[in-house]
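Consider today's protein:

***
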Amino acid sequence: MQRIGIIGGGAWGTALALTARRAGREVVLWAREEEVVAAINRDHVNPLFLPGIALDPAIAATRALDEALRGAEALLLVAPAQHLRALVAALAPRVPAGLPLVICVKGIEEGSGALMTEVVADALPDAPLAVLSGPTFAGEVARGLPTAVTLASADRALGERLIAALGTRSFRPYLAADLVGVQIGGAVKNVLAIACGIVMGRGLGDNARAALITRGLAEMVRLARAKGGRSETLMGLSGLGDLVLTCTGPQSRNQSLGVALGEGRGLAEILAGRRSVAEGVSSAAAAAALAARLGVDMPITAAVDAILHRGAAIDAVIAGLLARPFTSEIR
C-alpha cells in the first residue's frame, strides 16, 4: 500500500496524514473546510485544528472526494461519528471494489445505535473493513511521540498489510480481530471521560475518579459482550488503554467538557466555544439507548446521558449512583 487517502481534515485526520508520510506513503487528505485545504497546500500547516504543527510538504489536501480516492490503496475515514453515514453515502458511488476502508472515528450512531462498521456496511456491504483505535491524542501523534494503537480486521492478511503501511518506530499498531470490542471501547470511553470530568469539576476526589474508571470499564465489557465482542479486547489498548488516557489526560476534549459541566457551566455554552467535536456527547445517548435495548446494566453511562440530554441535575444523579444497592464486583 503506497498511496493512502484520508477523509477528514480535523486534528486526528491531519495527525494520521503525518503518520502515513513518516511511514513513507503518498498521502492525499480530504477536508471539508476550504481554509484548511488552502493552509495545508500553501503553508503546510492546519492552524484551524492542529495549530503549531509543521506538516510534511508532500501532504496534499483537497476538497474533491474523487481526488482523495484517485489511486488510493487504502482509505482512512476520520469524519465525526454522527456525520459518517452521510459521508459514506457520498463516497459509495466512487469507492472502487475491494478498496480497504479503515474506520478511525470513535462513536455510536444516535438513533440507530449502530457501530461505525455497521454504518459503513449499510452503504458499502462488500468493502473490506478495519478499525484503528486506541489511546491517541492527535497532537502527540503529530509530533511523533511514542504511541501504540489497535488495528482490528477480520481479515488477518489485510490487517498485516495496513500495519506495514502505517506503522513506524513511534506509531505502533497491534493486530486484533474483534472489531466489535474495539469499537465499543473507543465509543464508551468518551462517555466515561465526561463522567470523570464531572467528578473532577465537582471536587469529588481521585478515589471517586479511580472508582468511576474501574466501574466504567465493567460497563464497557458488558456492552461489548452483549454485542458479540470479547472481554479481553477491553483489557487492551482500545479499551483500558484509551479509557485511562481519556479519563486522566488534560488534553481530553471529553474530560474537559465534563470538568466544565461539573463546575456549573451549561452544555450549550460549552459547545458554543469549541470547534472540535467531543464525541462522548452524542455517544452517551446512543450507548445508553443501545444498552437499554440489549438489557445491559450501564448506570454510569445512563447517568451521563441523563445529565447531558434529559435535564437531570448533577448532584441528584451522583446521589442516585451512590444510593445503588451493593453488589458483586464480578458479574
